UniProtKB/TrEMBL annotation:
<feature type="domain" description="Response regulatory">
    <location>
        <begin position="13"/>
        <end position="128"/>
    </location>
</feature>
<dbReference type="InterPro" id="IPR011006">
    <property type="entry name" value="CheY-like_superfamily"/>
</dbReference>
<dbReference type="GO" id="GO:0000160">
    <property type="term" value="P:phosphorelay signal transduction system"/>
</dbReference>
<keyword id="KW-0597">Phosphoprotein</keyword>
<dbReference type="GO" id="GO:1902201">
    <property type="term" value="P:negative regulation of bacterial-type flagellum-dependent cell motility"/>
</dbReference>
<dbReference type="GO" id="GO:0043709">
    <property type="term" value="P:cell adhesion involved in single-species biofilm formation"/>
</dbReference>
<protein>
    <recommendedName>
        <fullName>diguanylate cyclase</fullName>
        <ecNumber>2.7.7.65</ecNumber>
    </recommendedName>
</protein>
<feature type="domain" description="GGDEF">
    <location>
        <begin position="171"/>
        <end position="302"/>
    </location>
</feature>
<dbReference type="Pfam" id="PF00990">
    <property type="entry name" value="GGDEF"/>
</dbReference>
<feature type="modified residue" description="4-aspartylphosphate">
    <location>
        <position position="61"/>
    </location>
</feature>
<dbReference type="GO" id="GO:0005886">
    <property type="term" value="C:plasma membrane"/>
</dbReference>
<dbReference type="InterPro" id="IPR043128">
    <property type="entry name" value="Rev_trsase/Diguanyl_cyclase"/>
</dbReference>
<dbReference type="InterPro" id="IPR029787">
    <property type="entry name" value="Nucleotide_cyclase"/>
</dbReference>
<dbReference type="Pfam" id="PF00072">
    <property type="entry name" value="Response_reg"/>
</dbReference>
<dbReference type="GO" id="GO:0052621">
    <property type="term" value="F:diguanylate cyclase activity"/>
</dbReference>
<dbReference type="InterPro" id="IPR050469">
    <property type="entry name" value="Diguanylate_Cyclase"/>
</dbReference>
<dbReference type="InterPro" id="IPR000160">
    <property type="entry name" value="GGDEF_dom"/>
</dbReference>
Amino acid sequence: MVQSQTSELFDSRILIVDDNPSEAAALRQGLVDFENVAVFNSGEDALTYCRTHTPHLIILDAKMPHIDGWTMCRRIREMGLLTRCPIIFLTSCNKEETEIACWESGGTDFLRKPVSPAALNMRVMSHLTTFWHIEISRRLLHTDPLTGLKNRYFYDKHIKEQLAYANRYEGDLALLVIDVDHFKRYNIAYGNEEGDTCLRKIAHILRKAINREPDCICRFGGEEFVIILPATNLIGAMHVGQKIVSAVSEAKLKHSHAPSGVLSVSVGAASFRSLENDACSLIEKAEKQLTLAKESGRNKVA
């Protein structure tokens, strides 16, 4: 391997999918310098993995039973966080239409079996280098400068992708809207600079409370945050919301102008499938629930 490559590249999460266990093992051995490599011999198992993890590069066998590589690639591209993930197809077929099918399904590159470990490594390093250059630029565009969370611009794009995926595959998607209780009083009492520090502390608490990889925390504006929870129903969303309420209360951040003397948050929860008999959108429903939580005493989830 080229010694000048940064260690961050070798920490990238790579997914190998090949129905032949011995070939999959050989591919893994060829990427021995990479620590975070997951290997699956089933397309179904790999898709399940992708719903809870975010690979930075995927090596995918084109022809597999049950669900082939082309179908799997299209499914992956529909997952919001994986639309830009490099996908390298592998196949032993020499037909031109096989290669064309790989490109048409959303593949990034194409290699014929048997694959040279040196060639595979060079392709992987090249694609990861390009991926991270783009990803760093995207993170700057999509990051809230105060809290380091995703911003409203990212939310608007990501929620559409997640709703489309949940709708197509008849899954669920939950949304939490979180508001810091009596935050205007906090700013008046302690000043805007301390108010900014308060929001950074809340963001830190949210990061610690939300540890499932596909879940996405965004600063929505002012003292309001949203959390997108893929593959989560309303019961699950309420559980996460209560976890957040408890985490903020347990932090005991001083707020002398709040009834309890400490900072608290109110949370509104909604899920895509719970809207079937409701004309409002997911964010509108979550906002309504947030209002209900605040009107019924704050420091709770509704």
